[in-house]
Amino acid sequence: MWLGCGNTVVGRHDPLSAPAPTTRSSDPHRAESLCAHEGATFDDMDFIPYDARLAVRVAWLDPGLEAALRLLGAWHAHRSPALPIFAATEFENLGFDMFGLRGHLERAGLHPAELVKLHGPGGDTLWWTPTRCDEASLRPRLSDTWQVTFRASPRGWIGTASDAAIFPFDILLPRNGAIVLAPRGRAGRIQAWLGKHRPLGATASGPGERLAQLRPAPLRAAFRSDGLLTATSTADPSTASAPPSERASTLRIGRDGLEFNGRLVL
């Protein structure tokens, strides 16, 4: 049974600070109903670190998601601008990764309305999942379903699966109503990265800000445009003139087509 549920809050203030005390509901039937409710969403994108290389926002329950993935595949196969290699690889494998992730979430009874996938500056990738349950409710459910053992840390809870064949991720449970799935064995490093603050004096928009500005769609992405590019063509001229630290691109795929840097291209 899932007890002590709260609202989904992914906010602006140290998203990985120490867990807050849990208040359990006096009505267990109501608590179970709230926790099992489908459609958890993010309040904003402020939890995305400023130096993330790529952020993909997936409308997980949108009936147009499958069509958006097909359109992404067609664009990737015939793209005009060169893409950073990490972004090209991500777009090529996104559908496969989502297929594997869906099975894990459904086994745990998790049906969020959206997910966010991040690429860290060191190349680590992670999924960020909203939930309407607090960490005290989630730990026993996830421990049983994914065979995970949790330990407390200064910035939240870290979970490690006993068998990578059953569950191939580490888990971070911050206090803000979210589940973070990180590469196995790297939760501590990723936890430290997620707790970093935006550098003083930084003026360029981070990927979270760019992602939040895109109109709703089954798939949205923001990513840095510097680094090694695919060799199929030249870089997009709309970003090539910017300083390396400020080169960024956006992708939006909806029922009206695929937009790259605000232009409808497919």
Short description:
The protein has 7 helices and 11 strands. The chain has an 11-stranded antiparallel β-sheet with strand order 4-5-6-7-3-2-1-8-9-10-11, with helices on both faces. A hairpin with a 5-residue loop joins strand 2 and strand 3.
Give keywords:
alpha+beta; 266 residues; 23% strand
Describe this structure in words.
The protein is of the alpha+beta class and 266 residues long. It has helices spanning 28-36, 65-77, 85-107, 135-146, 187-194, 207-213, 237-240; strands at 54-59, 114-119, 125-130, 148-153, 156-161, 169-173, 178-183, 219-224, 248-254, 257-260, 263-264. Helices cover 29% and strands 23% of the residues. Helix 2 (65-77) packs antiparallel against helix 3. It has an 11-stranded antiparallel sheet, with helices on both faces. It is globular and about 45 Å long.
Strand and helix map with partners:
Blueprint: H1 28-36, E1 54-59, H2 65-77, H3 85-107, E2 114-119, E3 125-130, H4 135-146, E4 148-153, E5 156-161, E6 169-173, E7 178-183, H5 187-194, H6 207-213, E8 219-224, H7 237-240, E9 248-254, E10 257-260, E11 263-264
Antiparallel strand pairs: 1-2, 1-8, 2-3, 3-7, 4-5, 5-6, 6-7, 8-9, 9-10, 10-11
Helix pairs in contact: 2-3
Report the count of strand segments: 11
> How large is the share of residues in beta strands?
15-25%
Poorly predicted residue ranges: 1-34
Q: What is the helix fraction of residues, given as a range? A: 25-40%
Number of helices: 7
Shape descriptor reads globular
Report mean pLDDT, rounded to a whole number. Answer: 81
Strand order of the largest sheet: 4-5-6-7-3-2-1-8-9-10-11
- Largest beta-sheet details: 11 strands, antiparallel
Distance between the termini: 47 Å
| Class computed from helices, strands and strand pairing | alpha+beta
Query: In angstroms, what is the radius of gyration?
Result: 19 Å
User: Which sequence of SSEs, written as H and E, runs from N to C?
Assistant: HEHHEEHEEEEHHEHEEE
